[in-house]
Amino acid sequence: MALSATNNLFDIFLLAVLWQHISWFVVIPFLSGIMIMMGIGFEWLARQKQWREEFYSYTNCYQLAAHKLQTRQLSWSPNGHWLASSFSMIDLNKADISLLNCQTRAVHRFSSASFPEILMPCLTWSQDGRILAFPGFDDANIHLFDTYTERIRSLDGQTGSVSALAFADEGRLLISLSTSSNTPISIWRVDTTERVSTFSQRGLRGNFAFYPGSRFFVHPKLAMFAVTGSVLALVWDIDTDVLLDRPLIRDTVHYANAKVVLVGDSGVGKSGLSLVLTDQHYRETDSSHARHVWTLSRHEVSLQKRQKEAREILLWDLAGQPGVSPTSFISTKL
Amino acid sequence: VALVVLDGRSETDPFAGVRYWERALRQARSLQGSTAIPLKKFLVAARTDRSGIGVSRERIQALCQDLGFDGYFETSAKEGRQIAELKQTIQESILWDKLPTVSSSRLFRDMKAFLLDTKKTGRQMSTVENLYDLFYHTRHKYLHKKDLREQFETCIGRVESADLIKRLSFGKLVLLQPELLDAYASALVNAVRDEPDGLGSIDEGRVRYPVLYVISIFR
Questions:
Q1: What is the pLDDT of residues B135-164, one digit of tens each?
Q2: What are phi and psi of B119, to 5 degrees?
Q3: CA distance A228 to A217
Q4: Residues whose CB falls within 8 Å of the CB of residue A74, separated by 6 or more in sequence, listed in order
Q5: Which of A143, A273, A289 sits opposite B75 (nearest CB)?
Q6: CA dist., res. A113 & res. A121, Å (int)
Q7: A100 touches chain B (CB under 8 A)
Q8: Range list of β-strands (E), A230-306
Q9: How far is B53 from chain A (nearest CA, A)?
Q10: How many angstroms away from the CA of A270 is the closest CA of chain B?
């Protein structure tokens, strides 16, 4: 038995040598195939690990930042560099939009003062993944976050709250749908953040009406978009060149506010200091026990394309209240 | 930009308050995520006309370095000492390129300005109707706007979200001086602290009285 077994093994060896001689070109691809398989396996494992790290670093952030949060929506940017998420704090009636930079692990957070119950915050990325648009709730209509400059721009000037957003024509235009009965659809220029057009309900045909869950569907290539309504869906053609060539609507104003907070224990002279900093006459003040807001300075600067931006510095005199935690109050003011 | 005001005359530990507020600022910043706009902090000694600073310069320098302050000013509001320098520094240290910008309509801007002007006159409370009528009759160029009223209410919401005014939940009232609420709350805290019956209790009548007072201002 043993002999025949060795014979068999020898036969197999011979066969293998023979086969190797005949077809090296079969074995080598086979071996490299295994290598590649192993490579893929390792990479897969590595990805799993990376993903897990990402996940934990992300969840940790929120466990540290606030509790009783409920995730409403998650959205990756089309180029995969950013993850946007919206959270809501049910008991505080507040919403948070957070952005995670997947490469640097940096987190941006934006809070809004109130959160409408019906409307989900709609996180919308531009097609190139550069700009994230999300609705503002009380402070403005729409916020745009530019991932290149890491800066927020807000669009305002419309009544009602925004229920749907869409980028059109390669991210040059932003279309918004709001609950306002007068001007439900607005079109904004993304580069100059100006409103270029609005559609009013009266201009719409037939018995078309929007409802809170109305959505946009933008054509991937052509400048067209469709909106779902309660009775029928409407399709629009946009002539981007006409909209962009239009003389800028003089209606738009741009501004930025900077906040300076004045803190310190009560009775150290904050009120007197804020009076003279804002060019008022000094006078003796009683213990004020209340916050005050003053305008420190105001000036206008010219931007490109004949735009002007009003820049205002506001001085927040926060009353000194030792023993009362000022953290939450300051955080909304910084 | 944050200014932390220091009491230079304190005998015991003038830095206790500074440390407290610096920590509060840091905590508030940590809530904003890792990439918030860098905050500039300045340490300001106020009322230096009354008496000199009770602590040596070396200790203040060490504190500034320790807590990461960007500058130190010895001011006097009464005599105007170092006020111009402080203001200049504030203006220079604002990074306008990093700050969020808002694009709004002219109408919104005018409405907000109107609300803030009304607030500045010292008026304490008003109804939405009164405010709207006042706006309507003083700003004639917007008479043709159809949804003016709707836009006006939106603007009230915008100014409210900046904590500058407060809509009350009853009677469509707008509190133009929400600072009053703070004053009321802190008066309550003091009253509770001073209560002869023991810490933490307060006579119900005393709590209610200021509410009636606030309403009586309006009437």
A1: 777 776 666 666 777 777 788 777 777 777
A2: -65, -40
A3: 8
A4: A83, A84, A85
A5: A273
A6: 13
A7: no
A8: 234-237, 252-264, 292-302
A9: 13
A10: 7
**Residues ≥6 apart with Cβ < 8 Å to A1:** none
Put simply, whether B88 touches A (Cβ < 8 Å) is no
Q: Where are the alpha helices (DSSP H) in chain A?
A: 2-22, 24-65, 240-245, 270-277, 327-331
Of B90, B100, B151, the CB nearest to A151: B100
> Which tens digits make up the pLDDT trace of A212-225?
667 777 777 777 77
Which of B24, B75, B146 has its CB closest to that of A327?
A: B24
Interface predicted TM-score (ipTM) of this complex, two decimals: 0.72
Angle at B181 between CA B175 and CA B182, to 5 degrees: 135
Does residue A250 contact residue A317 with C-beta atoms inside 8 Å?
no
Take residue A76 and report the two structure tokens written for it. Answer: 């990756």
Which residue, among B102, B107, B190, would best test binding to A if mutated, counting the most A CBs under 10 Å from its CB?
B102
Render B169-188 in DSSP notation, one character per residue: SSTTEEES-THHHHHHHHHH
Q: Which residue type occupies A221?
A: K
Cα–Cα distance measured from residue B157 to residue A271, given in angstroms and rounded to the nearest whole number: 28
Q: Which of residues 228-287 of A touch B (CB under 8 A)?
A: 250-265, 267-270, 272-273, 275-277, 282
CB contact under 8 A, A114 and B161: yes
Residue type, A83: L
Per-residue 3-state assignment (H helix, E strand, C coil) for B16-36: HHHHHHHHHHHHHHHCCECCC
Q: How far apart are CA B23 and CA B67, in angstroms?
A: 9
For A156, the closest chain B residue by CA position comes to: B104
* Predicted structure pTM score: 0.68
A74 has pLDDT over 70: yes
Length of chain B as a residue count:
219
As a whole number of angstroms, the distance between CA B200 and CA B120 comes to: 36
